[in-house]
Amino acid sequence: MTIATKLVGVQTKRTLREPAAAFFVIAFAPLFALLMGLIFGNDPVPEFGDRGYIDANLASITAIVVAISGLVVVPTDIVTQRETGALRRFRATPLRPLAYIAADVAVRFALSMLGIAVMFAVGILGFGAHAHGNLAGVLLASALGVLTFLAVGYALAAVLPSQGVAQGVGNVLVFPLIILSGAAVPLAVLPDGIRQGAQLSPLTQLVELLQGLWLGQAWSENLVPVLVLLGVLGIATAIAATFFRWE
C-alpha cells in the first residue's frame, strides 16, 4: 500500500467519523430526494411543465448539497483542524503538505459524488424520474460543481480566522444563495431585479447547468454557466493556494 493510499484511507476514516460532515456529504442528498418524493410524488403537474416534482427538481438538489458542503462543512472542518493543531502536527511529518491537501480534496470529492449518485438512483429507481438528456453529462456537471465549491470552501478556510467565524460566514452565505439559485424556490416567482442579481451567483449558474443538461440541452447551450464555474474554481483555488495557513 502506497503512502498516498494510506493517506486517503486516513482522511476517509476521519471524515466519516464526523457525523455532520458525513451526513451532509453522503446522506443528505438521497434523504432529501426521498423525503420530497414521498411528500410531493412525481405525478405530472402543470406547475412543473407537465412533469413531476422529482423530475423537475432532482438535478437541482445537487446544488443544495454542494453549497452546504462547500460553504459550511469544508471551511468549518478545516479551520477547526487548524485551531486544534491537527494541521500543524501533520505539517511536521515527512509528507509534503500538498499530499495532505490532495488526499483531502480527493476524499471529499469522491464521497460527495457517491451521495449525488445515490440521490439520482433514489429519484430514478424510486420515483420514476428520468433524464431527458445524458445522465453522464449531468453527473459530469455535478462533478464540476463539487470541485468548484470545494475550492470555495478551501478559500474561505484560508482567510477566515476561527471556527466560529467560518460557521457564521458559511451560514450567512449558504441560505440566501440556495434561495436565490432556483434550487429551492423557482426563479420565475422572484422579482425581476432579484432574479437578475441572482444570475451573478455561481450557485445559480450551477443550477441552470444541471437543469439544462437534465432536460436535454447540449453543453454548447450552457457555456456561460460552465465558464462562470471554471472561473470561480480558478479564482478560489488561487486564493486558497496563496493564503492557506497551517497554524
Automatic annotation (TrEMBL):
<dbReference type="GO" id="GO:0043190">
    <property type="term" value="C:ATP-binding cassette (ABC) transporter complex"/>
</dbReference>
<keyword id="KW-0812">Transmembrane</keyword>
<keyword id="KW-1003">Cell membrane</keyword>
<feature type="transmembrane region" description="Helical">
    <location>
        <begin position="172"/>
        <end position="190"/>
    </location>
</feature>
<protein>
    <recommendedName>
        <fullName>Transport permease protein</fullName>
    </recommendedName>
</protein>
<feature type="domain" description="ABC transmembrane type-2">
    <location>
        <begin position="20"/>
        <end position="247"/>
    </location>
</feature>
<keyword id="KW-1133">Transmembrane helix</keyword>
<dbReference type="InterPro" id="IPR000412">
    <property type="entry name" value="ABC_2_transport"/>
</dbReference>
<feature type="transmembrane region" description="Helical">
    <location>
        <begin position="223"/>
        <end position="244"/>
    </location>
</feature>
<feature type="transmembrane region" description="Helical">
    <location>
        <begin position="101"/>
        <end position="129"/>
    </location>
</feature>
<keyword id="KW-0046">Antibiotic resistance</keyword>
<dbReference type="Pfam" id="PF01061">
    <property type="entry name" value="ABC2_membrane"/>
</dbReference>
<feature type="transmembrane region" description="Helical">
    <location>
        <begin position="135"/>
        <end position="160"/>
    </location>
</feature>
<dbReference type="InterPro" id="IPR052902">
    <property type="entry name" value="ABC-2_transporter"/>
</dbReference>
<keyword id="KW-0813">Transport</keyword>
<keyword id="KW-0472">Membrane</keyword>
<dbReference type="InterPro" id="IPR047817">
    <property type="entry name" value="ABC2_TM_bact-type"/>
</dbReference>
<dbReference type="InterPro" id="IPR013525">
    <property type="entry name" value="ABC2_TM"/>
</dbReference>
<dbReference type="GO" id="GO:0046677">
    <property type="term" value="P:response to antibiotic"/>
</dbReference>
<dbReference type="GO" id="GO:0140359">
    <property type="term" value="F:ABC-type transporter activity"/>
</dbReference>
<feature type="transmembrane region" description="Helical">
    <location>
        <begin position="61"/>
        <end position="80"/>
    </location>
</feature>
<comment type="similarity">
    <text>Belongs to the ABC-2 integral membrane protein family.</text>
</comment>
<feature type="transmembrane region" description="Helical">
    <location>
        <begin position="21"/>
        <end position="41"/>
    </location>
</feature>
